[in-house]
Structures are given as structure tokens and as C-alpha cells.
Amino acid sequence: xxxxxxxxxxxxxxxxxxxxxxxxxxxxxxxxxxxxxxxxxxxxxxxxxxxxxxxxxxxxxxxxxxxxxxxxxxxxxxxxxxxxxxxxxxxxxxxxxxxxxxxxxxxxxxxxxxxxxxxxxxxxxxxxxxxxxxxxxxxxxxxxxxxxxxxxxxxxxxx
Length: 159
Known about the structure:
By secondary structure, the protein is mainly α. It has a domain at 54-155. The chain has helices at residues 2-13, 22-44, 54-83, 103-115, 136-143, 146-155; strands at residues 92-97, 119-125, 128-133.
């Protein structure tokens, strides 16, 4: 994680000169601070570094493509709802299971739902999410479990 933070900082900071010693020094200090913060948070969360396995990083690009696609499709649906008569909205609350084994996976699933327009995760408790949706079509991917399966694949499991 420290190497990833340092590489990100270096790629965004340039240009570099030999006489500009303070920029790399402060950059290193900030990377060390964030890394220390990460380790403290990881320890508080159980300390098992549950998500940062190389295989999970290799599965991440596919997940990001799925996320962008779902967000785009949901945006089109919400735009249709905006221009439709007000009677088209049928808001609903639903509890859905979160089948991820890790806390990080469950939080990622909750955020995946919230990032998708038309749905918001209101609560995550006891492996269950409370989801608000604008209408039946907005909650379809949550109810049918396809979003849950996407996060499970990222976690390295299948449904």
C-alpha cells in the first residue's frame, strides 16, 4: 500500500529537480502519514487485510466496467423518470441480504448501490442492507442479486 501511495504521489507531483529537495521530502512524509493511518484503520477493522490480495486487484477492472455501465443505465432511467408524469414514481424501501464475507465487501456493495442513481443504501446491519429506490425498475438489480454477485466476484467468490 505504501508503494501504491508513493507511486500515485510521484505521478501527480512532477516535475522534479535536484535542488527541489523539500517537495520529495514532504511527499514522503505525507505518504508515510497516510500509510500509518491506513495501518491504524486496518488494525481497528480486524487487521486481516481482507481485500488487498493481488487477485482482487486483477478483478478490479472488470468490476469498474460493470459499475460504469450500471451507473450509466440508471442515469438514463432516472432522466426518463424526471420527464415522465409524477405518477411514475413509486418509492420503496426493501431489506436485501449482503452475502459478502468481508466487511469491506459489504461496504463496497452498499456504496455500489448508493452510487447507482435511483437507489440509496440507508443502513447496513447484520449482513443486511436497507435500500431506498425510486421505483421498481430502480431496485431491480438489487432485488435480483446481480449487484451482489458483481461484488462477490470482485471478492473472489461466486454466488
